[in-house]
């Protein structure tokens, strides 16, 4: 898999992290990390003529189903980062896209892999990927694309934390869907502030199952779990609407010696 | 008042409006408009050595108490706008800051006036503005600074719309306060989607009274009011925590012939 996607075009752009993309610790939020990654991929697509309109003219839309996110260091307020993106490979049903986010010295801050499908606009069902929608990326056609880690299947316990969130008008982005980076604000807001101030994100596995809609009230649930490492902890998350599972997430955290003030 | 602040330094910078700063109509949100205005003013302050740390080393912090926002046209996704900012004038207790947001052709999109005070970090009371905190802006020292329009005093009626919002961890920005641009997401989300899709913002008057805190549940209330103009409507808004008034807002809207699809 080392060389998978080696022929695919890499697109890169810079982005300055603004104060309003950061949390109170001055670190970019996880939602921001995904927002700027998707922005770069949309810019690559536009530059190659693969605009949203072009994709929709084929009766389909791209939908992300999984992310696996490795975080070395979260970018901070006022840092300018470089986002590189590549539509690395695809098979008949799944496309594999990678993102590298690095600091001004070229040091890697985050590496994101993701799996995408095309969904029919009329039937809302997954359909075969049309070669015309991937050829301009010089994506590698392959039988097998990497399987991303599946998040832990969420198991409610007596200590599960749960909070309701109304999906707001401003959660819908110009693509007419709830910006699924907003899920991270819900997921992480369920954790106590003390926890968020004393942990750094290390790895995030995300799997989207069903789309949430404007007007829905989602329930975000979280479990805090121990790991084998004394300075690491895991959290398992679920977003659901009624009984329907919308998104499952597992996060690995590094425990800091002291909370960030 | 035409020449008030004519000697003050103007700082300007460009900003590209990203998809995640826009609503489903592709227009920048009101929260984005304020976010990018404040970003420009922080950049001006930093460039003049008036960093947050410098201000805090005097035992105070700047707090905005009022905005009056004129909107000619909301910027759209992928537009690059120019934000110009000027710390125009101050008297012993109030500072007057202006912002101009314009498109690539130099056409004005929005004009924002605002009133700021300095608050003691220990007593949380308003204190006299220290000349050292405004001199580098070449702000004009004056007896009278303009009075901004006061929003309509909110009157609950039987048709008042009301919605609760939990203040989230990610509403707090690196300044350790709830980003008060987020109030606009709460205020406007209370209005029906049909209304938001069939109206353009024309003018917004905002008055902040008390700060909301992480963990609070705020209640956002709205009344939709007629005006003398057949194609215009007003909305009156209140954000409160318990019985405490946090923010009052009046918005003038232009009714569109048809809703945006």
Automatic annotation (TrEMBL), chains A, B:
Positions of the Acyl-ACP thioesterase N-terminal hotdog domain: 10-137
Name under which the protein is recorded: Acyl-[acyl-carrier-protein] thioesterase
Annotated ranges, domain Acyl-ACP thioesterase-like C-terminal: 156-254
Keywords noted in UniProt: Fatty acid biosynthesis, Fatty acid metabolism, Hydrolase, Lipid biosynthesis, Lipid metabolism, Transit peptide
Signal peptide: none
Stored Pfam families: Acyl-ACP_TE, Acyl-ACP_TE_C
Domain of life: Bacteria
Family: Belongs to the acyl-ACP thioesterase family.
Gene3D superfamilies given in the database record: Hotdog Thioesterase
């Amino acid at each position: 898999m080392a060389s998978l996607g080696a022929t695919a075009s890499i697109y890169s752009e810079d982005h300055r992290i603004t104060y309003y993309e950061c949390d109170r610790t001055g670190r970019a939020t996880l939602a921001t990390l995904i927002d700027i990654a998707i922005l770069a991929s949309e810019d690559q697509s536009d530059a190659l003529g693969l605009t949203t309109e072009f994709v929709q003219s084929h009766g389909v839309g791209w939908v992300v189903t999984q992310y696996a996110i490795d975080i070395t260091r979260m970018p901070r307020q006022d840092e300018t980062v470089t986002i590189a993106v590549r539509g690395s490979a695809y098979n008949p049903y799944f496309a594999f896209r990678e993102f590298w986010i690095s600091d001004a010295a070229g040091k890697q801050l985050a590496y994101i892999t993701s799996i995408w499908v095309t969904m029919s606009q009329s039937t809302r069902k997954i359909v075969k990927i049309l070669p015309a929608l991937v050829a301009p990326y010089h994506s590698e056609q392959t039988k097998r694309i990497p399987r991303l880690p599946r998040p832990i299947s969420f198991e409610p316990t007596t200590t599960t934390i749960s909070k309701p969130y109304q999906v707001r008008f401003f959660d819908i982005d110009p693509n007419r869907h709830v910006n699924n980076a907003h899920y991270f604000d819900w997921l992480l807001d369920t954790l106590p502030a003390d926890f968020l101030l004393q942990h750094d994100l290390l790895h995030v596995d995300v799997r989207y199952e069903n789309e949430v809609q404007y007007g829905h009230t989602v329930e975000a649930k979280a479990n805090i779990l121990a790991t084998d490492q004394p300075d690491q902890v895991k959290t398992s998350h679920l977003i659901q609407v009624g009984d329907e599972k919308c998104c499952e997430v597992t996060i690995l955290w590094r425990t800091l010696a002291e909370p960030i003030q």
